[in-house]
Write a structure and sequence with these properties.
The complex is a heterodimer of chains A (270) and B (356). Chain A is mostly helical and 270 residues long. Chain A is built from 12 helices and no strands. In chain B, helix 2 links the parallel strand 1 and strand 2. Chain B folds into 2 domains: 170 residues, Periplasmic binding protein-like II (D-Maltodextrin-Binding Protein, domain 2), CATH 3.40.190.10; 147 residues, 3-Layer(aba) Sandwich (D-Maltodextrin-Binding Protein, domain 2). The chains are: A mainly alpha (270), B alpha/beta (356).
Chain lengths: 270, 356
């Protein structure tokens, strides 16, 4: 009984900020301005799929890069002493104290053709690189902003790994590579999976990054949804329908990834 | 006991949800003003409070559409809003504005009559003009071989990846419509589609560097792009930072916009709103505001007192024959607006085929 009553605020919180908005999205998606049931919001699914394709590709690339950076980083960090770990964690968290839009705006100044990066490259005699307003800039913005969400779950899983497994593997004659491949990596999969989810989902739905760093040259799902609310025709019904389609596809994708981690319960998020 | 605690916590959460939006609201007279960003001298609020005892709660929006969606979706309580012409027309048509009580706004008589009774509010029942201005082409004299003179030049230029274009469907498709010789307010879908095709070709050819709104300030000031489309008043601010910039009024004619003070239906402090609107029409306030913002005033009396250097600036106050070619955005039917979005998505999805 006691544990149940302690959950009341949480349940209430979830209801107000998760369940009710979700229900509203579904209701809006299947109604028109007069509140009548309609399926017409799903008519232009071809446009949606085209934009979705764009977004998935960029989000997948960003997620893969995050994983490639975050896994070795977390792996080696977990073997360091307390002080190094604390400092590293602080450095990872520090940028997150600043507003996301400001950080992205700062990247705009760094990547501009006459920006900080190109001035620096110019000093050491390297030609200017054209990054701003391309998909590369968008992916870079995603990786920069969402990398902590990959590092934190992977690190906390590797950090909490029962060292006896590793010792047992070594006792049984596994060399370093085999220990990693057959013991450490499979045991860290839950962290990898939550990291992948936590990077992929914000990447696929972002719109500020493509606006600021992509210069509006690449059009992502977040832009499409934003447009239904802040474009010339205010259409929350169509916006909700697109959001719902995205939601369904993301849930399906998450379910599929989670199948790989079957039985590996307890993916630690933070 | 535990139950009681959790119940209290839940109650606290409900209360904070309900009351947080009104956070910081004290007793006493207030007026809630919702305006464009960087579009007022905020020190004016102190004077207004000192003289009337009414405190100004100030919030800003970045597009007419954002303003519209916050009024339309409800839940907000603004007393004075400052939309542009076409949005005023749309809000009047959808009964989102209250009529003004002009007996409480005597300084309305300062306004130049040519800025009253315009298409967006023909009976002049809902709005008091705030500022006006035009759009146009801003270019960097050091980065172009030939100065642009028309909207069409943005589509035929040899420059690659050097042009910044408006990042919203109305302005962007609008300038392409003008380049083709059509009206900003056409409801002919073939014309709108033709304009979108022109924009798509421009993007495919690699002429466009980016679609931007206020990011254009940094980009033009730092010589990132040779040509950009934006508002004349903002050009004045950019030119102060980068003397190489110049402004061109396209020969096809540009958008003459009028932003006006209105009162939305969600207003809760009607009389304070009237007092605020009247205060904003006072000559000394208008002059201070123009000095800060850089746009043009519709007030005849304030203009007469203005520093001649500013009042005679052809960018801020263009000549009669230039203004005669300009056109103001009007309200469009909702199916045309949806078509704008539809065509805009096609432009957004077009791929750059050549990079220069």
């Amino acid at each position: 009984m006691r544990t149940k009553s302690a959950a009341v605020p949480y349940v209430f919180w979830m209801a107000v900020f998760v369940v009710i908005p979700l229900v509203l999205i579904v209701v809006y998606a299947f109604t028109n301005f007069d509140g009548e049931f309609t399926l017409s919001n799903f008519d232009n699914i071809d446009v949606f799929l085209q934009v979705f394709g764009n977004s998935v590709v960029l989000a997948l690339i960003a997620t893969a890069i995050c994983l490639l950076i975050a896994y070795p980083f977390s792996y080696f960090l977990a073997q360091e002493g307390t002080l190094v770990r604390k400092i590293a964690m602080l450095l990872i968290m520090l940028p997150m104290w600043m507003n996301f839009l400001l950080r992205t705006y700062a990247w705009m100044s760094i990547l501009e053709n006459n920006g900080f990066l190109n001035q620096l490259l110019g000093l050491i005699g390297l030609g200017p690189v054209h990054i701003i307003n391309t998909d590369i800039a968008v992916v870079l913005g995603m990786v920069y902003n969402f990398l902590p969400f990959m590092i934190l779950p992977i690190f906390s899983v590797i950090d909490k790994l029962d060292k006896r497994y590793i010792e047992a593997a070594q006792d049984l004659g596994a060399n370093k590579r085999e220990t990693f491949r057959r013991v450490i990596f499979p045991l860290s999969l839950p962290g990898v999976l939550s990291g992948v989810t936590m990077v992929f989902i914000p990447s696929i739905s972002t719109f500020a990054i493509s606006k600021l760093l992509g210069g509006g040259m690449s059009f992502l799902l977040g832009d499409l949804i934003e447009m239904q609310f802040l474009g010339s025709a205010y259409n929350p019904h169509l916006g909700s329908a697109i959001a719902l389609m995205m939601l369904v596809l993301v849930v399906v994708a998450t379910l599929i990834t989670n199948r790989f981690g079957d039985g590996e319960e307890g993916a630690v998020l933070m | 006991m535990k139950k009681l605690v959790s119940l209290l916590m839940a109650l606290l959460m409900v209360l904070s949800c309900v009351f947080l939006p009104g956070c910081g609201e004290e007793q006493g007279e207030v007026v809630n003003v919702y305006n464009w960003g960087e579009y007022i001298d905020e020190s004016i609020f102190d004077d207004f409070e000192a003289e009337t005892g009414i405190r100004v709660n100030y919030a800003t929006f970045s597009s007419n559409e954002m303003l519209y969606s916050s009024i339309k979706s409800g839940g907000s309580s603004y007393d004075v809003i400052i939309p542009s012409d076409y949005m005023i027309a749309r809000m009047i048509a959808e009964d989102l504005l209250l009529e003004l009580d002009y007996s409480q706004i005597p300084l309305m008589s300062n306004m130049d009559p040519q800025y009253l009774h315009r298409d967006y509010d023909p009976q002049q029942l809902y709005s008091v003009p705030y500022m006006w201005g035009t759009t146009g082409i801003i270019y960097n004299t050091k980065m172009v071989d030939k100065a642009p003179t028309s909207w069409m030049d943005l589509f035929t230029t040899d420059l690659r990846s050097q042009v910044l274009i408006f990042d919203n469907p109305r302005d962007c498709i609008g300038l392409a419509l003008k380049a083709l010789g059509y009206s900003f307010n056409t409801t002919d879908k073939d014309e709108i589609a033709e304009a979108a095709e022109l924009l798509m070709k421009q993007k495919e050819k690699g002429i466009v560097q980016a679609y931007v709104m206020d990011q254009i300030f940094d980009k033009m000031i730092n010589n990132e792009a040779a040509i950009g489309t934006y508002y004349a008043g903002d050009y004045v601010i950019m030119a102060e930072e980068n003397p190489d910039l110049a402004f061109c009024m396209p020969e096809e004619g540009a958008n003459l916009f009028m932003d006006a003070m209105c009162v939305p239906v969600c207003c809760e402090n009607y009389n304070n709103a009237m007092a605020f609107i009247n205060f904003m029409c006072r000559d000394d306030i208008v002059l201070r505001n123009c000095d800060e913002v850089g746009y043009s005033t519709p007030s005849a009396t304030a203009l007469a007192e203005m520093d001649p250097e500013m009042a005679e600036d052809p960018v801020i106050y263009p000549s009669e024959d230039v203004l005669a070619k300009c056109e103001t955005f009007g309200g469009l039917p909702s199916d045309v607006l949806s078509f704008y979005d539809h065509e805009w998505i096609r432009v957004c999805l077009a791929k750059v085929k050549y990079r220069g």
